[in-house]
């Protein structure tokens, strides 16, 4: 007897490359029947990646699409639309990760699929949150790692390579797929109570940010000191003592009040916005920190007195 947890669940996989396929592959491993839709004559872009033997499937494709069925189908044609419509009507989950607006043009948006099959759960992966002004832009692994701040946690502080560096781990792609997977499993549980499918949206930006929330800066306050306060930790004092006449310290806002109280020098933010980050909504806080980081990088490169930044 098949006791796989997702036995009997049918998934239509309209995803490509890595973020979506990593999610649907996990659904397949958990026992779901996953039907992968691929472009006729071309297939998924990864079918030609890491293909060491032209007679065998590519290593890249197998890593992300094992346990799935594949169907060559052109959803732009009337016949392709009819076949996909029939599949959706009997599906439990529909997953896509095309660029923003693509599924709407094909006629298979969330609203269209929900009308065809109200019980079908619709999962989607895009680059940025729906609340973001960048929600209509395409995104890839490096973009997600940079905008979420993950790249700023990798690399070297000193030397010629002291720039934000992309992690080798797929924080933007496979990690987004795992986040969507969690949402889809929750949606299945919700459907067992409501009888209706829902829309599950996952952005690569937020998935990447979620893994880096402890490593990337907390709400920050920028402090300039003419001398190093004794209230700083020993490692911070050692680092700050190597700077010039002024010391720039980026510190968690929760620590800023006590540090500033012991300092004889007032905050001098110069061109940087003096903002109470405690009062900012989360989405605005992310935008503020992103702009702040970019400006700090520019200041750091142009003013010799700012030689060290503590994150």
Describe the model.
With 311 residues, the chain is α/β, with parallel strands linked by helices. 37% of the residues lie in helices and 14% in strands. The protein has helices at residues 19-29, 59-65, 78-89, 102-106, 110-116, 141-147, 174-194, 204-211, 234-240, 253-261, 282-302, and strands at residues 10-14, 33-38, 69-72, 93-96, 121-126, 199-203, 220-225, 247-252. Strands 3-2-1-4-5-6 form a 6-stranded parallel sheet, with helices on both faces. Strand 1, helix 1 and strand 2 form a beta-alpha-beta unit.
Write the H/E string, N to C: EHEHEHEHHEHHEHEHEHH
Number of strands: 8
Overall pLDDT score: 77
| Terminus-to-terminus distance | 54 Å
Report the sheet-strand fraction. 5-15%
How do the strands line up in the largest sheet?
Answer: 3-2-1-4-5-6
Radius of gyration: 24 Å
Percent helix range: 25-40%
- Name the quaternary structure: single chain
Give the low-pLDDT segments: 217-228, 232-275, 299-311
Structural class: alpha/beta
Main beta sheet strand tally, sense and closure: 6 strands, parallel
How many separate helices? 11
CA-based shape = globular
What topology does this entry show?
Blueprint: E1 10-14, H1 19-29, E2 33-38, H2 59-65, E3 69-72, H3 78-89, E4 93-96, H4 102-106, H5 110-116, E5 121-126, H6 141-147, H7 174-194, E6 199-203, H8 204-211, E7 220-225, H9 234-240, E8 247-252, H10 253-261, H11 282-302
Parallel strand pairs: 1-2, 1-4, 2-3, 4-5, 5-6
Antiparallel strand pairs: 7-8
């Amino acid at each position: 007897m098949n006791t796989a947890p997702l036995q009997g669940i049918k998934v239509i996989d309209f995803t490509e490359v890595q973020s979506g396929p990593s999610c649907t592959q996990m659904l397949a491993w958990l026992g779901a029947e996953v039907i992968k839709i691929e472009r006729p004559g071309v297939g998924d872009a990864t079918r030609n990646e890491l293909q060491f033997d032209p007679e065998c499937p590519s290593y890249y494709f197998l890593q992300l699409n094992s346990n799935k069925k594949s169907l060559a189908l052109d959803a732009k044609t009337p016949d392709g639309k009819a076949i996909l419509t029939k599949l959706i009507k009997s599906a439990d989950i529909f997953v896509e990760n095309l660029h923003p607006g693509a599924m709407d043009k094909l006629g298979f948006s969330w609203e269209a699929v929900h009308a065809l099959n109200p019980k079908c759960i619709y999962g989607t992966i895009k680059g940025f949150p729906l609340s973001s002004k960048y929600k209509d832009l395409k995104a890839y692994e490096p973009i997600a790692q940079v905008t979420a701040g993950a790249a700023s946690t990798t690399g070297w502080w000193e030397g010629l390579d002291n720039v934000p560096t992309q992690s080798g781990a797929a924080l933007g792609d496979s990690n987004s797929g795992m986040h969507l997977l969690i949402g889809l499993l929750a949606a299945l549980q919700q459907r067992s109570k409501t009888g209706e499918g829902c829309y599950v949206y996952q952005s690569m930006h937020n998935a990447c940010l979620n893994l880096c929330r402890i490593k990337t800066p907390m709400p920050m306050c920028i402090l300039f000191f003419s001398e190093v306060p004794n209230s700083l930790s020993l490692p911070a004092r050692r680092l700050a003592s190597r700077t010039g006449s002024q010391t720039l310290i980026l510190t968690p806002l929760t620590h800023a009040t006590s540090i500033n109280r012991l300092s004889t020098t007032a905050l001098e933010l110069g061109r940087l916005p003096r903002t109470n980050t405690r009062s900012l909504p989360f989405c605005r806080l992310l935008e503020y920190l992103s702009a702040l980081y970019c400006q700090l990088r520019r200041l750091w490169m142009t003013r010799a007195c700012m030689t060290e930044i503590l994150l």
